Amino acid sequence: MKEILPEVERWLADGEQVVVATVVATRRSAPRPVGTSLAVSSSGAMCGSVSGGCVESDVYEHAREVLAGGAPRLVSYGISDDEAWSVGLPCGGEIDIFVERVE
Predict the structure, then answer these.
(1) Coil, strand or helix: which one is 5?
(2) In the chain, how long is the greatest CA-to-CA distance?
(3) What are phi and psi of 28, to 5 degrees?
(4) How far apart are CA 16 and CA 94, in angstroms?
(5) Which is it for the CA torsion 28, 60, 11, 70, positive or negative?
(6) How many CB atoms lie within 10 A of CB 54?
(7) 22-72: per-residue pLDDT in tens?
(8) Could you give the CA distance from residue 100 to residue 103 in angstroms, rounded to a whole number?
(9) What is the pTM of this model?
(10) Could you tell me how far CA 80 lies from the centroid of its own chain?
(11) What are phi and psi of 65, to 5 degrees?
(12) What is d(CA 29, CA 18) in angstroms, rounded to the nearest whole number?
């Protein structure tokens, strides 16, 4: 969270609404540790990272929904070890991400 804080504070000072998505749990292999965050502003800007690739784009969509008035939410992503191996990854893993508006 510390790495995104200056940008979040700037967005808030500029009058933008902000949503922060934070990794709250991991199981097995995960690209980012618990506590890692991604912020999205009402103008669509983004900073930080919670994963990568298709996970990050889906988290962005959840953030946009929360910005539009949706409720905070917990979203989970994962891939089994067998599925991971079939696409060339060494192992699978799971992450849970909490998406909430900054007030």
Answers:
(1) helix
(2) 47
(3) 60, -140
(4) 32
(5) negative
(6) 9
(7) 999 999 888 889 999 999 999 999 999 998 777 899 999 999 999 999 999
(8) 9
(9) 0.88
(10) 20
(11) -65, -40
(12) 29
